[in-house]
Amino acid sequence: MNLVKTISENLDFKKLSALFDEYLVDIDGDEREFFAFYNNVTLENVLVIYENEEAVGCGGFKKYDNTTAEIKRMFVHPNHRNKGIARLILNELEIWAKEKGFSSYILETSPKLTSAIALYEKSGYHLIPNYGQYIGVENSICMKKDS
């Protein structure tokens, strides 16, 4: 496995993000345009994981406030799941964010993504009230971890 730090303009990140958006169509349903608006943002801190030179997973973060990084676009290609790739991405994003001065991490996910929620809980995240644009959105849950 090879992990590359990049930005959201990276072509492999864009391809994985497009696959993620296709995957979310059924999950987000009528709210997909709402989520797409907030998920398809420019990110200066993106990781892409390669296995045998194939991009198999990605994730990124952006500044939420002076001490908090928001984890975005966590995705592992379905053919490469259950190999610990998502955990590796999340851990590396947290290390990178900490190096940039952040001391806590937040994220939003769908209550339907139970395996993602399980990963976040095992990684020390806990449920918090929905923040920002997710306040009042029933198809969202928000989580936080302090380092």
UniProtKB/TrEMBL annotation:
Gene3D superfamilies: 3.40.630.30. Signal peptide: none annotated. Residues 2-147 form the N-acetyltransferase domain. InterPro entries: Acyl_CoA_acyltransferase, GNAT_dom, NAT_camello-type. CDD domains: NAT_SF. It comes from the Bacteria. This is GNAT family N-acetyltransferase. It comes from Flavobacterium hankyongi. The lineage of its organism: Bacteria, Pseudomonadati, Bacteroidota, Flavobacteriia, Flavobacteriales.
